[in-house]
Amino acid sequence: MSDNNQQPGQINIELDEKVAEGIYSNLAIINHSASEFVLDFVTLMPGVPKAKVKSRIILTPQHAKRLLKAIGENIHRFELAHGEIKDSEQPQVPLSFGPTGQA
After folding, report:
1. CB 3.0 to 4.6 Å from 101: which of 21, 30, 55, 67, for a disulfide?
2. pTM, entire model
């Protein structure tokens, strides 16, 4: 099929197999400056004192705000279909990345 059939305003997005596999993360470290938000996704394993950043996403403040809104809307739809997501208490993880927020 040719790209000539694409509707105006549509974006053709490719997803290769490696990226489609995804990366599991159970910790997100969020930092920001005046011009960007940096989201580091980490996998912490029980009993292992060291972890590596598995993926990093860098966003403009405008895109970070759009992502926040999109995630909120998707959580709302998920909870309507599947019930409330319970927020369990997690022990604080000491991190040495400087001032950060956690999600």
Report:
1. 30
2. 0.73
